[in-house]
Specification:
CATH topology of the largest domain: Aspartate Aminotransferase, domain 2
CATH architecture of the largest domain: 3-Layer(aba) Sandwich
Largest sheet: 7 strands, mixed
Strand order of the largest sheet: 2-8-7-6-5-3-4
Shape: globular
Structural class: alpha/beta
Number of strands: 12
Helix content: 40-55%
Strand content: 5-15%
CATH class of the largest domain: Alpha Beta
Length: 392
């Protein structure tokens, strides 16, 4: 085999999400796209806001020559300033432009942070269920991802987190609103987590950072407010992207926001700017930097996602499915009626319904439905969901 052992292992346990996406393409080729109900991939189906098209057109018309060259690795200064202003308003804490690093999406941002923080064998704790690729990101930089159980409703379990923190813990990585559950961690639980990390940092004589992955922050329902981690713990960094709230997943544009009270802040920012370069990202895409600096707090039509959520939840609830209604994101994470979530997902496949087993997210006995699809896809899939559940 010509592959490295590391990549061989990664391929062997590769993402269920991509597997199902590829299965969807195969089934669509056989049965036709309208006869396959693909809920496998969190690929936003809403168009970007109209302001996006207007802005990108204006920028392309007005770009002077030599506008496509290299820039500072942390991003254009004017873009960092604009993003800092937006983040400061959103979080209720003042962050300056020198605390912002523009990145190739949130995935790039997390890799930049972990490259900058981790020594070999350092541990990154994350509440489970969690986004499947976190483990790969930690492994990329010599770290070890340690999932920590959550409560049955997917809220933080502080007792489990207390037991998990040890002298090897370098960071805790949270994702709220959460992929795959849609759960949002409360201000009270984040404050308790902050107190725990402060205590453990003193006990182990090293700073334990709190990393908050927030690409779904604006996709919330019924005026739910996502608390700021900077209210809870000063040693915190925020990672986000414009992939979900602007439907720009393929444009790979995101950022890191370093908390205003982070210890050794300047050294950390400098290290991450270099990591951005040496990991091969070099800098975030220049055109997209210009665009996001101009469109402020624009978002897609979140009400459309709310309608899809309610349509799906109402249909599945009447069919006997058990789930926590998600306050955010465009994911639903029901329990499977049998312990073997892979077998249940395969049963759904027989109805040409594509979902992802919870095992892929560290939560067997569940499955994920990405409802960022057309309304007819949801409506036409519901009879199949009902037939499968009736069989159990």
């Amino acid at each position: 085999m010509s592959l490295s052992k590391t990549i061989e292992e990664i391929v062997a346990r590769s993402s269920w999400i991509r597997k199902m996406f590829e299965e969807g393409a195969r089934l669509k080729a056989i049965h036709g796209e309208s006869q396959v109900f693909d809920f496998s991939l969190g690929n936003p189906n809403l168009p970007p806001p109209a302001q996006f098209r207007e802005t990108i057109g204006e920028i392309l018309q007005g770009l002077p020559p030599a506008s496509h060259g290299y820039m500072p690795n942390a991003g254009y200064p004017f873009v960092r300033k604009a993003v800092a202003e937006a983040v400061s308003k959103e979080q209720g804490h003042r962050v300056s432009e020198d605390g912002i690093i523009m990145t190739c999406g949130a995935a790039g941002a997390l890799n930049v942070i972990l490259k900058s923080l981790l020594n070999p064998g350092d541990e990154v704790l994350t509440p489970a269920p969690y986004f499947v690729e976190y483990g790969f990101y930690a492994d990329n930089h010599g770290g070890v991802l340690k999932p920590v159980p959550t409560r049955p409703d997917f809220t933080l379990d502080l007792s489990a987190m207390t037991e998990a923190v040890n002298e090897k813990t370098r960071a805790v990585l949270i994702n709220s609103p959460n992929n795959p559950t849609g759960q949002i961690y409360s201000a009270e639980s984040l404050a308790a987590l902050g107190r725990l990390l402060s205590e453990k940092s003193r006990e182990h004589h090293r700073t334990i950072y709190l990393l908050s992955d927030e690409p779904y922050r604006k996709i919330v329902y019924h005026d739910v407010v996502v608390p700021s981690i900077w209210d809870a713990y000063p040693e915190s960094l925020i990672v986000s992207s414009f992939s979900k709230d602007l439907s720009l997943a393929g444009e790979r544009i995101g950022y890191i926001a370093v908390g205003p009270e982070v210890t050794d802040r300047d050294a950390l920012v400098g290290g991450m700017a270099i990591a951005n370069r040496i990991l091969g990202f070099v800098n975030a895409p220049g055109l997209m930097q210009r665009v996001v600096s101009r469109i402020g707090n624009a978002t897609v039509d979140v009400a459309a996602y709310a309608r899809k959520r309610d349509l799906l939840c109402d249909g599945l609830r009447s069919a006997g499915y058990d789930f926590v209604t998600p306050p955010g994101t465009f994911y639903l994470f029901p329990r499977t009626p049998i312990p073997d979530d892979v077998a249940f997902v395969r049963a759904l496949q027989e109805e040409r319904i594509l979902t992802v087993p919870g095992s892929g997210f560290g939560a067997p006995g569940h499955f994920r439905i990405a409802f960022c699809v057309s309304d007819p896809t949801i409506e036409n899939a519901l009879p199949g969901f009902r037939r499968v559940m009736a069989g159990y």
